[in-house]
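Example 9 (inverse folding). The structure is encoded as follows.
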């Protein structure tokens, strides 16, 4: 038994020594990036899928759990693959050209995005839309910092909030098919289901009655 413990400690020491080797840093960073992508994707998707599935999806308890597991796995896998691809391509470009350059990041991410997130499915669509909104904010701030557009005299956020909500509700009311299914479900719950009730039970307690009354 003691021999087994000694072997394990020796293995751990060897692994820790390897992790300290600077010449392997780029390759090890790719592996650590894959790990972090998988963990982060699971942490983000699991609670979201849990809430959305039990709020809006029909089916048995087992079917709902299966749906949650599939969504979590897909998000975790895709993010892990993307980080792995991105960091690998970044390291390869830096090695080939002798130093890290700004366009390396853009090119590596473009290739990773095409390969990993190019399939138009609900999970990828949500991720891309999440990123798009943040990109628009980031580019707007960058444009002001660089002087391409003048600094607003007043906070433009109230106007932005008004335009975003006005547009999305107009689309929901008159062009619903253009919105993502999960957003359609959320808005149906908020703005249509609130128009229907029969008694106190489905007015305050439940959204919809489940009996045949």
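The amino acid assigned to each position is listed next.
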């Amino acid at each position: 038994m003691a021999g087994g413990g000694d072997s394990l400690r020796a293995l751990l020491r060897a692994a820790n020594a390897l992790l300290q080797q600077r010449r392997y840093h780029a390759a090890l960073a790719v592996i650590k990036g894959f790990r972090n992508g998988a963990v982060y994707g699971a942490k983000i998707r699991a609670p979201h899928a849990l809430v959305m599935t039990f709020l809006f999806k029909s089916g048995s308890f087992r079917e709902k759990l299966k749906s949650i597991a599939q969504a979590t796995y897909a998000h975790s896998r895709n993010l892990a693959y993307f980080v792995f691809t991105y960091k690998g391509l970044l390291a390869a470009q830096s090695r080939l050209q002798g130093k890290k350059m700004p366009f390396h990041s853009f090119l590596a991410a473009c290739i990773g995005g095409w390969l990993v997130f190019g399939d138009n499915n609900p999970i990828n669509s949500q991720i891309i839309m999440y990123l798009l909104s943040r990109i628009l904010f980031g580019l707007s701030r960058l444009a002001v910092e660089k002087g391409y557009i003048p600094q607003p005299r007043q906070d433009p956020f109230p106007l932005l909030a008004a335009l975003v909500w006005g547009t999305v509700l107009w689309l929901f009311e008159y062009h619903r098919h253009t919105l993502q299914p999960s957003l359609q479900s959320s808005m149906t719950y908020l703005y249509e289901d609130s128009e229907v009730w029969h008694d106190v039970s489905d007015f305050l307690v439940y959204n919809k009655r489940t009996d045949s009354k």
